[in-house]
């Protein structure tokens, strides 16, 4: 028998008051400001720091990623709430994964794609890829403008 998307596994049982999964009983979800924020211990030592990235470089990469998401969201004509959701996803991702091991540009692209769907303003993946490619080309042209001329 195939399990549907809302079915409960064989080791879990349900009743009207909640669900028993393994040996834990879940009856309600409590969402408060205390359990929705990233805990202090995860803010102080990030995976990027363990991989040797200094605090200032990590902060610069976070800012650059959020600016990239904002610019892409504007070009994709996403609502501001979708761009903000993407930025939150971006930050939360890098509190559990390292900037050294994951490309911030790819993660930013994935975050804006996911956020557009979460906030019910979906964009085609091809459009997202094209916008990020366009922004990368613009960034490359700006870098070339600031290089010293040989001679």
Automatic annotation (TrEMBL):
Q: Which SMART domains match?
A: CYCLIN
State the source organism's domain of life.
Eukaryota
Q: Which GO terms describe its molecular function?
A: cyclin-dependent protein serine/threonine kinase regulator activity
Q: Which InterPro entries match?
A: Cyclin-like_dom (IPR013763), Cyclin-like_sf (IPR036915), Cyclin/Ssn8 (IPR043198), Cyclin_N (IPR006671)
Q: What are the alphabetically sorted keywords of the record?
A: Cyclin
- Tell me the Gene Ontology biological-process terms attached to this UniProt entry: regulation of transcription by RNA polymerase II
Renumbered to this chain, the signal peptide range is: none
Tell me where in this chain the Cyclin-like domain is found.
67-147
Q: Is Zinc-finger given among the entry's keywords? A: no
| Entries under SUPFAM superfamilies matching the protein | Cyclin-like
| One family name in Pfam for this protein | Cyclin_N
Q: Which family does it belong to?
A: Belongs to the cyclin family.
What's the protein here called?
Answer: Cyclin-like domain-containing protein
